[in-house]
Design brief:
590 residues; 25 helices; mainly alpha; 6-stranded parallel beta sheet
């Protein structure tokens, strides 16, 4: 009795991923390098457990298809518009500048212009999955260089789309360019997808959602992505372009989050398989035969991209340290380079040996990035950092209250605590505000309250209460997460910008939440009602009844706040309940 070969190969892929990825992440190399390691281990240059990679390559291509669909979903016009200067300014400058330099190198080495341009664009792209993971793990996404890095990566992802569309046009006639449909047909299909998407797809998903059968909704999502991808392939364009268009069409849909959640498991597994298949095709024989050339390629790739990124950092006024941090984080090659080089071979723009050499260089550049970032953190960045301590030295004290944020909301409890004789330690991240407040005799200290070392220095271990009054939402949530993780004994009283901020605080287990201007708005409403003729006691009772209802709805809405459509429906039901609650009260007016 023999095992099914397909089932056996599937078992090998899964086992390789399960063993390699956790090991890679434990070493700080990230999941992408882990998948590449897994492919290298089971492929022809490793244990040779799998010799035929054609089936895996064919299936794994859908991982990139699903990745492009999710990227399209993320491109809400409002979000893209808010980032337009960084994305289309710095992002475009990075891609154009780096592509020009690498194209010039390719021409110098004797490549035809079309091939050199393809290599230039492929090497200009960084690894979005790799860099975002590094930034997220190091809590650097909200930093200036983290935001700039994200904008550049976003433009790179966008730049891949038109390139995939025109790549067949650059191919020699013998490579299958004739398979491309007439340009008018291509334009008609793309415009048809864009036009009919909002008129057909969105209503269709509403109908499917009403069936309340999750597996059918998932099936419809897969049908949409694969259907449009295959349609684009049938007219000679890439499946990835079709998936991206499908995502963009549905970016403003109320089902965007559910679509993304449904596709995520398929995207993750198939994208992992894509990286494994890339790892299997990496020709490590080249590393032995052309060690010097490969090493020069890796160093040249990182050096050229880092030089461009440092220059852009100066243009964006990031500062020397932040510019270097950005260069260290996104100067590697990216996963889309694998896609472009594979398509380059398919369309006759690159030969197999050149593609193998480039894939090896990109793979090794990704592998050395964590070490480069660590080296930058330990040896380079500290030399560029100002001598000033990142926070004031806080005198040793065991005050019962810590206040993070000494702005409009943090000052009120601080003043009351002071007159009642309770000691507290106040922290504020804005140095200019600290300077102003100190002139008036307040006793506060400069520093970022999300820093664990500052919280420890401020006596968080001995405090009883933590007042979270930070104005910035991201900084507030970051601080709350650190406090909950390292000082669980502290009772947190948190300021919330709005209901969404309040729900995020609830995600962290915080229950004492105070929405800013909420109490003041209720007080104003009470005075408006009295001016309109309500008796003072009835106005007070009305506001009290409204507050009880609204606070109850805030807690109940927490259960559905991650699903936009359910939250909208809940809000409508809440409004109806409020009207019912006050039905008959119109007679209160004098």
């Amino acid at each position: 009795m023999h095992a099914d070969p397909v089932l056996f190969e599937t078992l090998i892929y899964l086992a390789a991923a399960v063993l390699s990825v956790p090991l890679s992440k434990a070493l700080g190399l990230g999941s992408v390098v882990g998948y590449l390691m897994a492919g290298s281990a089971i492929g022809p240059w490793g244990l040779r457990l799998i010799s035929d990679t054609k089936t895996a390559n064919h299936v794994s291509e859908f991982g990139v298809v699903f990745l492009l669909f999710v990227i399209g979903l993320e491109l809400k016009p409002s979000r893209l518009w808010s980032l337009r200067r960084a994305v289309f300014g710095l992002g475009a400058a990075q891609v154009i500048g780096t592509t020009a330099l690498f194209t010039a190198v390719g021409l110098t080495l004797g490549l035809p212009f079309a091939s050199a341009a393809l290599v230039g664009i492929g090497l200009s792209l960084s690894s979005t999955a790799f860099a975002m993971q590094l930034l997220g793990e190091r809590n650097q996404l909200s930093t200036p260089f983290g935001q700039t890095s994200f904008a550049i990566l976003l433009f790179q992802d966008l730049a891949v789309i038109p390139l995939m569309a025109v790549l067949p046009l650059l191919a020699p006639q013998t490579a299958g360019q004739s398979a491309m449909a007439h340009p008018l047909t291509v334009a008609a299909v793309i415009l048809g997808i864009a036009f009919l998407g909002g008129r057909v797809l969105k209503p269709l998903f509403r109908i499917i959602a009403r069936a309340r059968t999750k597996e059918i909704f998932t099936a419809a999502t897969l049908l949409l992505v694969l259907g449009i991808a295959l349609l684009m392939q049938s007219i000679g364009l890439s499946m990835e372009l079709g998936a991206f268009l499908a995502g963009v069409v549905l970016a403003d849909s109320e089902y965007r989050h559910e679509l993304e959640a449904d596709i995520e498991p398929f995207k993750g597994l198939l994208l992992g398989l894509f990286f494994i298949s890339v790892g299997m095709t990496v020709d490590y024989g080249l590393l032995g035969a052309k060690t010097g050339m490969v090493a020069a390629g890796v160093v040249g790739l990182i050096a050229i991209k880092a030089a461009v990124l440092i220059a852009l950092g100066k243009i964006a006024k990031l500062g020397a340290e932040s510019s270097l941090n950005m260069a260290a984080t996104i100067s590697q090659g990216g996963e889309f380079a694998f896609v472009l080089f594979a398509l380059g071979v398919q369309f006759g723009l690159l030969d197999t040996s050149t593609s193998s050499l480039l894939i090896l260089i990109v793979t090794l550049s990704m592998a050395v990035t964590p070490f480069l970032v660590s080296l930058n953190d330990k040896l380079v960045s500290p030399r560029l950092r100002p001598e000033k301590c990142p926070f004031d030295k806080v005198p040793m004290a065991e005050n019962p209250v810590l206040i993070a944020g000494y702005g409009r909301m943090g000052q009120i409890p601080a003043r009351v605590l002071k007159v009642k004789g309770f000691d507290f330690t106040a922290l504020e991240h804005d140095p200019e505000h600290v300077s102003v407040v100190l002139k008036y005799g307040a006793k506060i200290y400069y520093g970022d309250a999300s820093r664990l070392d500052l919280l420890e220095a401020a006596g968080a271990k001995h405090a009883k209460i933590f007042i979270l009054a930070i104005d910035d939402v991201e900084a507030s949530l970051r601080t709350a997460e650190i406090v909950r993780q390292h000082f669980p004994h502290l009772k947190i009283f948190a300021r919330a910008r709005n209901r969404e901020h309040a729900h995020h605080l609830m995600d962290l287990g915080i229950t004492s939440i105070y929405r800013e201007v909420y109490a003041t708005s209720l007080e104003m409403t009470r005075d408006v009602l009295k001016t309109l003729g309500l008796a003072p006691e009835r106005a007070e009772e009305t506001v009290h009844k409204f507050r009880e209802h609204d606070e109850k709805m805030l807690v109940e809405a927490y259960g559905v706040h991650k699903n936009e459509q359910e939250l909208i429906n809940f809000s409508k039901r809440s409004t109806e309940q409020l009207l019912e609650l006050f039905r008959g009260d119109q007679s209160d007016v004098k």
